[in-house]
Amino acid sequence: MPSPMLEPLVLSDEERSVLTGWSRRRKTSQALALRARIVLRCAEGGTIGDVARDVGVSRNTVSKWRARFAADRLEGLSDEPRPGRPRTVTDDQIEQVITKTLEETPGQDTHWSTRSMASATGMSQSAVSRIWRAFGLKPHAVQSWKLSTDPQFVDKVRDVVGLYMSPPDNALVLAVDEKSQIQAIDRTAPILPIMPTTPERATHDYVRHGTTSLFAAFDLGSGSVIAQHYRRHRHQEFLRFLKLIDAAVPQDLDLHLVLDNYATHKTPAVKQWLLRHPRFHLHFTPTSSSWLNLVERWFAELTNRKLRRSAHRSVTELEADIRKWINEWNADPKPFVWTKTADEILATPRRILPMN
Questions:
Q1: Are the C-beta atoms of 176 and 228 separated by less than 8 Å?
Q2: Model confidence over 173-232: pLDDT tens digits?
Q3: Residue 14 half-sphere exposure, CB side, CA atoms within 13 Å?
Q4: Burial category of 291 from C-beta neighbours within 10 Å (exposed 0-12, middle 13-18, buried 19 and up)
Q5: Distance between CA atoms of residues 186 and 180, nearest Å
Q6: SS3 of 186, please?
């Protein structure tokens, strides 16, 4: 049966331009792109069947969107609101929750919970939780940060980061620090091994068997580590460690050491020794900026992969276990690549503190 005669679909220049743009979409709003192609093809003439065959849809689909466009023009191609439960939370209620979260505290408590906010606003806890998630609010969470008060902060950051990102020729850059008070601890009962559906289990309480300090120098180029245990961490031990580094590194290489501001690194005895060994160059990180010393990243590996879940009955056993782990690390060392420039680091506090 032939289609009834339809009134021609005439498009304005603006409508044709908009529909053409919609029809060319390749990744988003494919439904809208299809409707635009249907209307453009209908405007060219032809029957409902011709358009359905050319576009690749049913006759009913062509009829529906042709009629919607004829009645409401471009707005007719958008989806109509679907039936469903009416909205129960108003814009004023959302604003009230956000304002209270950002500007007030719940009585004697330091921060809001979903329960206290629901009680204060007369809303449900689930509604408060949805609002917080939608606006990225986390009243229960807190992040700590510390700003260095070192008057030479900028110069020290540029010095250390410059070493990391552009090491000098014919030189070795070593990140040096001490990990003190490493405890030899043993659980009060044997550790139970991992089993299907059950993680490894250890008693909460433990017995202390003494402590040791690990002096380490992390080679930024290769990722290898020079390390030595000492039972104390005075300037005498630091001086002995400098002598160990001096003996371990070929004499034709200069040594640039990145250190923190610990007092043992600056005693008269250490300074006199450095004067007699001019190939050593010390670079100090700013105060309260241990994160700038890459050996701290290596200490984190040692802690996470060896110390946190191990048990030792003596300091000697602990030191032997750490030495074995370090030897395995040095057999396949992994350098850490520093990527953040000094300018990027120095720009960070400006996002936190008000500018003068």
A1: no
A2: 999 999 888 888 888 777 777 878 778 777 777 788 888 999 999 999 899 999 999 988
A3: 2
A4: exposed
A5: 18
A6: strand
Distance CA 183, CA 310 (A): 11
Contact yes or no for 346/154 (Cβ under 8 A): yes
216 phi and psi angles, rounded to 5 deg: -140, 145
Q: Which helix (H) or strand (E) holds 155?
A: helix 153-165
CA dihedral over 308, 313, 314, 317, signed as positive or negative: negative
Is 153-347 assigned to CATH 3.30.420.10? Answer: yes
Domain spans in the chain, listed from the N-terminal domain onward: 13-77, 91-134, 153-347
Looking at the DSSP bridge assignments, the partners of residue 283 are 258
* pTM check: above 0.85: no
Residues paired with 230 in a beta bridge: 213
Q: What is the pLDDT of residues 115-127, one digit of tens each?
A: 999 999 999 999 9
